[in-house]
Specification:
- With 175 residues, the protein is mostly helical.
- The protein contains seven helices and no strands.
- Helix 2 runs antiparallel to helix 3 (46-57).
- The longest helix is centred in the last third of the chain and has 34 residues, at 140-173.
- The two termini are 13 Å apart.
Length: 175
């Protein structure tokens, strides 16, 4: 029993978030392949949503903070062209989320709205950063219409499902 407890306390959440990170890339590849010649692009943000929800539901601040740093580094190394962006952003999201849940009553809809706010700020920050250092040069209108809005709709749906899923996972985890 103690070995299972040790694994659950120390490896379950990081392993789960790591698999979610891998799912991000797989679904992104699948979506870009299935959309084919469509003009818009959908970017799933499973990792961002899960880290935000874990910051809402987990009791232990330091555990989700540490996981967000490690996953941020892996995310940058695996997906991003700039090392350090998500290494900084994911822990900041945890800090902001922890501050918000102390100030506002949290229920399904406020958590869902918070996910949409986090997603919006995150994607706009990444767009602005990439634009400033000239990694991409697409116009803001193009970004909004071809990437942000289709992705926001997709991730709003994901967030809707994940709120329930992560809540159940955390309840089981903290038993």
């Amino acid at each position: 029993v103690s070995m299972l407890h040790f694994f659950k306390n120390n490896f379950l959440i990081p392993t789960f978030v790591f698999f979610i990170l891998l799912l991000d890339g797989s679904v992104m590849t699948m979506l870009s392949y299935s959309l084919g010649s469509e003009k818009f692009q959908i970017s799933p943000q499973f990792t961002l949503i899960v880290i935000t929800l874990l910051a809402v539901y987990l009791i232990n601040d330091s555990k989700i903070f540490l996981v967000s740093i490690i996953i941020g580094f892996i995310y940058d190394a695996y997906y991003s062209s700039i090392l350090g962006v998500n290494l900084f952003l994911f822990p900041m999201i945890v800090i902001l989320t922890r501050a918000v849940i102390k100030k506002f009553p949290m229920n399904f809809y406020t958590i869902w709205l918070w996910i949409l706010i986090v997603y919006t700020v995150y994607t706009h920050f990444i767009y602005a950063l990439y634009y400033l250092i000239d990694i991409h040069s697409s116009s803001y209108y193009y970004f909004l219409s071809q990437n942000y809005i289709p992705s926001l709709l997709f991730n709003a749906f994901l967030g809707f499902i994940f709120i329930w899923l992560i809540q159940k996972l955390v309840i089981w985890f903290e038993k």
